[in-house]
Automatic annotation (TrEMBL):
ATP-dependent serine protease that mediates the selective degradation of misfolded and unassembled polypeptides in the peroxisomal matrix. Necessary for type 2 peroxisome targeting signal (PTS2)-containing protein processing and facilitates peroxisome matrix protein import. May indirectly regulate peroxisomal fatty acid beta-oxidation through degradation of the self-processed forms of TYSND1. It is found in: Peroxisome matrix. ATP binds at residues 290-297. It comes from Bos mutus grunniens (Wild yak). Belongs to the peptidase S16 family. This is Lon protease homolog 2, peroxisomal. CDD domains: RecA-like_Lon. The gene is LONP2.
Length: 767
């Protein structure tokens, strides 16, 4: 075996004082140069030197000292490492400094410092030459056998670490029993070999691990490559959970977790049934659309629990960068995978339930369109080969069950909407809210506030008062908050009662119970024993009635003001659809002397403004038929007359065609001087000829009319098919009238009809 020649270094070396760690022989380190002495060394030796000897420095570890730039040389360690300057990078901002890339050669010992200014220079003695050690022959004999054994073992692991150099120098081997990252790389390589990733992904990992072994750890790409490989071995390429396909148990679980929502639960059970018959069924792309607070997100959790799958929620509201979906390319600093791949890493299986929350609130920016990036994710024909920019290899998403939620489909791009199966989740009726409150909300609030049913009782009539007088919503979030406020108030009473019971148990208090106050020995009264504090604790359970509601929640927020608003001509009630559910909408009109102008207020959109112009044009053309005149008795309704239409509330933006029939009815009431029925609401688009066209959101609008206590709803005749979706109890409480033209609308909106006989096609039925 050939001997290794020792490394020779100059007898005098310039000293580089660094506080960034200890440089070992054979290792590479980047160090910053910003002190006066080190700056002079770099400028004089490295930037001006031309020989190889001028690039060899003596690196001495030095503790940071605020006075390091002072005239006196700080105390130096006697042992240092001779290093070769491989690279010099300089900058003048924010102040002059350099960054050196240095590689350790061998150790040395300082004999004496021969010069201190402008930078220190020392006479050194090289320590890595074995012949200079004491008892050289004996040392060689002792180390020889150990070195031979180590060399044999090193040859055996050459296949595992083919890029590492087998060194037979004991000192160099010792400098190498300190690199713990090498063991991690070996473990990482073992995970790659034993992983079940596809062949293409495995080839990429093998290539990257070979590159990683060649890189020095100080390179920025080292950490990026290592993070990439760790992600690749952690992804669940072939790991999945087994679905629970018991249809009966799934039905019971869904019914226990969620009241109502029959259409949604039916679709989930259909998926389970088909999944039971066909094991390799691709996951459907479902989209639950409905107002806030109706349980869209919680249904996603229940679906995962029913299937026995992992659940992961991805919030998409406000996302405006496609990299959130597809990930960043690894050429960027701080790159990371997208939310889809990161979610798979989190759950650890390849068939979870992914909830894409608020998909209708995706944004768009210069960084791309995330809605377009979702097209591949949500396409069952493409997502089996989904490629994240960070991974740069395909991942199979076909077994993932994607469930998206949205408040409206209007803001979802058509291409994305086409890839999803839309399931409408409408608002709840009053009866459904009562059941939900007593099945789910009240028990949850009692548990959260440490109360028991023996301490508080909320009758259903009280729950109905909360729903009708203190909340007006399609979901149950506000109802949940009101119940929480009641529980907090009761918790105060219960805590005070326990405190009073504790004081009543005191012997001194019990003796003075009949007195007005208990006197102390010094004649002063004891406020703790005052009779106001000796009041008996409240009787349990505490019953919450309307008077208690008023004390806890304050005066009712929503009183039935419909009859008061319709106490004069020129007012009608319309029905509107919003992402928050259906709402009733008042339309007010007034006339005054003027020049025939029409004024519209209430933050109206262009479509609603056009509906107002259509309504006034139709009334002007039919003024003689209905005997409608202006203030001067002329059939020209706008002659010397201005009309003002207002749509409260003024702070809310409004648009859409469904207010046409309401505007026409409001103006007919204004010019005829007759009152519109106070229990009727209406919706429908109109044409210039007076036809009534169908509109959307009939179920939500009907629920809004039912919440407001109305009795009659006028809808377009072509919307009669939508009445089947309305709950039976709502259909029983409301009288639905279908109309195909404005004549039928006006006859149904006024008591006794509107001057002309109703057409025989008018349908007035109690459904």
């Amino acid at each position: 075996m050939s001997s290794v020649s020792p490394i020779q270094i100059p007898s005098r070396l310039p000293l580089l004082l660094t506080h960034e760690g200890v440089l070992l022989p054979g290792s590479t380190m980047r160090t910053s140069v910003d002190s006066a002495r080190n700056l002079q060394l770099v400028r004089s030796r490295l930037l001006k030197g031309t020989s190889l000897q001028s690039t060899i420095l003596g690196v001495i570890p030095n503790t940071p000292d605020p006075a390091s730039d002072a005239q006196d040389l700080p105390p130096l360690h006697r042992i240092g490492t001779a290093a070769l300057a491989v690279q010099v990078v300089g900058s003048n901002w924010p102040k002059p400094h350099y960054t050196l890339l240095i590689t350790g050669l061998c150790r040395f010992q300082i004999i004496q410092v021969v010069k201190e200014k402008p930078y220190p220079v020392a006479e050194v003695e090289q320590l890595d030459r074995l012949e200079e050690f004491p008892n050289t022959c004996k040392t060689r004999e002792e180390l020889g056998e150990l070195s031979e054994q180590f060399y044999k073992y090193a040859v055996q692991v050459i296949a595992i670490r083919p890029m590492r150099r087998i060194t037979h120098v004991p000192g160099a081997l010792a400098d190498e029993d300190e690199d713990e990252d090498n063991d991690d790389i070996v473990m990482l390589e073992k995970k790659i070999r034993t992983s079940s990733m596809p062949e293409q992904a495995h080839k990429v990992c093998v290539k990257e691990i070979k590159r990683l072994k060649k890189m020095p750890q100080s390179m920025p790409e080292y950490a990026l490559t290592r993070n990439y490989l760790e992600l690749m071995v952690e992804l669940p390429w072939n790991k999945s959970t087994t679905d629970r396909l018991d249809i009966r148990a799934a039905r019971v679980l869904l019914d226990n977790d969620h009241y109502a929502m029959e259409k949604l639960k039916k679709r989930v059970l259909e998926y389970l049934a088909v999944r039971q018959l066909k094991n390799n069924l691709k996951g459907p792309i479902l989209c639950f659309v409905g107002p806030p607070g109706v349980g869209k997100t919680s249904v996603g959790r229940s679906v995962a629990k029913t299937l026995g799958r992992e659940f992961h929620r991805i919030a998409l509201g406000g996302v405006c960068d496609q990299s959130d979906i597809r990930g960043h390319r690894r050429t960027y600093v701080g790159s990371m995978p997208g939310r889809i791949i990161n979610g798979l890493k989190t759950v650890g299986v390849n068939n979870p339930v992914f909830l894409l929350d608020e998909v209708d609130k995706l944004g768009k920016s210069l960084q791309g369109d995330p809605a377009a990036a979702l097209l591949e994710v949500l396409d069952p024909e493409q997502n089996h080969n989904f490629t994240d920019h960070y991974l740069n290899v395909a991942f199979d998403l076909s077994q993932v069950l994607f469930i998206a939620t949205a408040n409206t489909t209007a803001s979802i791009p058509p291409a994305l909407l086409d890839r999803m199966e839309i399931i409408q989740v409408p608002g709840y009726t009053q009866e459904e809210k009562i059941e939900i409150a007593h099945r789910h909300l009240i028990p949850k609030q009692l548990e959260q506030h440490g109360l028991t049913p023996q301490q508080i009782q909320i009758p259903q009539v009280t729950t109905l008062d909360i729903i009708t007088r203190y909340t007006r919503e399609a979901g149950v979030r506000s109802l949940d908050r009101k119940l929480g406020a009641i529980c907090r108030a009761v918790a105060v009473k219960v805590a005070e009662g326990q405190h009073r019971e504790a004081k009543l148990d005191r012997p001194d208090v019990a003796e003075g119970e009949g007195c007005k106050e208990h006197l102390l020995e010094d004649g002063k009264s004891d406020p703790v024993s005052d009779t106001t504090d000796l009041a008996l604790p409240p009787e349990m359970p505490i019953l919450i009635d309307f008077h208690a509601l008023k004390d806890i929640l304050g005066p009712p927020m929503y009183e039935m003001e419909v009859s008061e608003r319709l106490s004069q001509p020129g007012v009608a009630i319309g029905l509107a659809w919003t992402p928050l559910g259906g709402e009733i909408m008042f339309v007010e009109a007034s006339r005054m002397d003027g020049e025939g102008q029409l004024t519209l207020t209430g933050q109206l959109g262009n479509v609603m403004k056009e509906s107002a112009h259509l309504a006034i044009s139709w009334l002007r053309s039919n003024a003689k038929k209905y005997h409608l005149t202006n203030a001067s008795g002329s059939f020209d309704l706008l002659e010397n007359t201005d009309i003002h239409l207002h749509f409260p509330a003024g702070a809310v933006t409004k648009d859409g065609p469904s207010a046409g029939v309401t505007i026409a009815t409001c103006l007919a009431s204004l010019f005829s001087g007759r009152l519109v029925r106070s229990d009727v609401a209406m919706t429908g688009e109109i044409t210039l000829r007076g036809l009534v066209l169908p509109v959307g959101g009939i179920k939500d609008k009907a629920l809004a009319a039912h919440r407001a206590g109305l009795k009659r709803v006028i809808i377009p005749q072509r919307n009669e098919k939508d009445l089947e979706e309305i709950p039976a109890n709502v259909r029983q409480d409301l009288s639905f009238i279908t109309a195909s033209c404005l004549d039928e609308v006006l006859n149904a909106a006024f008591d006794g009809g509107f001057t002309v006989k109703a057409r025989p096609g008018l349908l007035n039925s109690k459904l």
